[in-house]
Amino acid sequence: MNTIVTILNSLKIDNTFLVQFVLFLVFFNVIAPILFNKLQEILDLRESKTSKLDSHANDLYKKVEELQEKYKASIEKTHQDSQVIASKKKSEILAKEREILLGAEEKMTSDYEAKRAQLLKEMNEKRSTVLSEASVLSNSLVEKLTK
Hints:
Helix content: over 70%
Low-confidence stretches: none
Strand content: under 5%
Mean pLDDT: 88
Radius of gyration: 60 Å
Largest sheet: none
């Protein structure tokens, strides 16, 4: 026991230490529920707000995913509609071009037939001219040969 007293004296701990220790325990037991309960309430409030914000964030994330799906569906529908419109326009343009080509082909065919008929007529005229002169020419040739 003497050594304990010597150690306490060397640490400059005197008889008031016990009184201070008892007062500390009483103070702690009286003040602790008041302070720690308030601190616990603050921690619980913070935790509830955090979990509410987490659930709110999850709800917002779900809404974002739904809107994203709607947006993608809308884009896909618009793309399909534009493809349908483009194919209709393309077929209309091709039909118009076919009509133009058929008209040009008919015109060229009629022009060809007209020129052909004209050339045949001219050939027939020249043939008839040559055939009508053929008897005169053959007679003149026979005369020259016979002389």
